[in-house]
Amino acid sequence: MALQNFARRAFWTLPSSFSRHSSGHDARIICNRISVNWLSSQSEKWSTKNRLDLNGTSTVDHARRHFHTCATRLKKDDLSRAQMAASMPKQDEGTQGENMLDVIYDQQTDVFPDEGTPNRLFDGIRFADLPICDITATPNNTIMTLSNSAGIVKSIHSCGREGFKNTREGTNVAAQATAITMALRGIAFGMKNVRVTVAGLGPGRMAAIKGLTMGGMNVISITDKTPIAWSSFPRPKKRRKL
Amino acid sequence: MMGQHAKFIARTVLVQNNDIEQACRIINRIMGSEGWFDQYRRTRRYEKPFMARRRINFEKCKAIYNEDMNRKIQFVLRANRVDPFPGC
């Protein structure tokens, strides 16, 4: 009888699917019967499955969430999530060879510029007078600017202008296609040999340089001009929540 | 940062025989091994002081461990020993 009273009290807390669809006394009786059965089954479960030990941790039932944890911790401990994350391919930042161990460049003396490089001739043009192709590779887009040695901009092109929209802008395929178009334009301007500067880490970082050569341009040098801050002001945005 | 250095001299690689892949790899490798990319990635979002402390402590511990481990490896691999297998 005490159990039935408890069940009557628990009536309003039961799921609405079997309590709220009909009205009045009959519904209450039906619900009492259901809830008594439900409660007895639950109490059996609780007594056997959800026994709490002194540390407050459940001994058997792993499906039920511990009271001292939270969604973020559960996500962190979820093995299947970690496995999935490990199996995902590494995001392309255009930094292939970053962790490579080789000494090839040590044997090549001509790889790095020296004091004579600005006056060195490439197809009859001084290195310092060569046109410049600036590439800004961000995770979401790649923007390319073609200018002469004085910095006068001749042409600007980006993955968005090339016809790739939204997330497709941030792919190496888009960057390569954009660079090919850019190279064709540059050659039309008479800019066959270019110096390339790249800024930022993104999928277009390497792909764009490759695209320039595919379009027929001759890349003389590659400069990294990623803006790296050692004391960041203004303070960057806060981290994204997991 | 770049304004203080000569443009097209600092952080520049000349392409050899039109091999841009190799040139990219060289510049990526140097930038990566000297920690420039790490610094760039780290400053995209604010690093809270407690995170900076934790990271620096971890780096210190790692450096100490690596130093000792290298010393140990050098000791085991040392050449020109009077007795090649001491204690055997």
UniProtKB/TrEMBL annotation, chain A:
Family matches, as InterPro entries: Ribosomal_uS11 (IPR001971), Ribosomal_uS11_sf (IPR036967)
Any one GO cellular component localisation term in the record: ribonucleoprotein complex
Keyword presence, Ribosomal protein: yes
GO MF annotation list: structural constituent of ribosome
Keywords for the protein's UniProt record, in alphabetical order: Ribonucleoprotein, Ribosomal protein
One Pfam family cited in the UniProt record for this chain: Ribosomal_S11
Biological process terms in GO annotation: translation
Family statement: Belongs to the universal ribosomal protein uS11 family.
Protein name, per record: Uncharacterized protein
Source organism (scientific name): Daphnia galeata
Automatic annotation (TrEMBL), chain B:
Signal recorded as keyword: no
GO MF annotations in UniProt: structural constituent of ribosome
Example GO biological process: translation
Keywords in alphabetical order: Ribonucleoprotein, Ribosomal protein
GO CC terms: ribonucleoprotein complex; ribosome
Annotated InterPro entries: Ribosomal_bS21
Keyword Ribonucleoprotein tagged: yes
Protein name: 28S ribosomal protein S21, mitochondrial
Organism: Daphnia galeata
Organism placement in taxonomy: Eukaryota, Metazoa, Ecdysozoa, Arthropoda, Crustacea
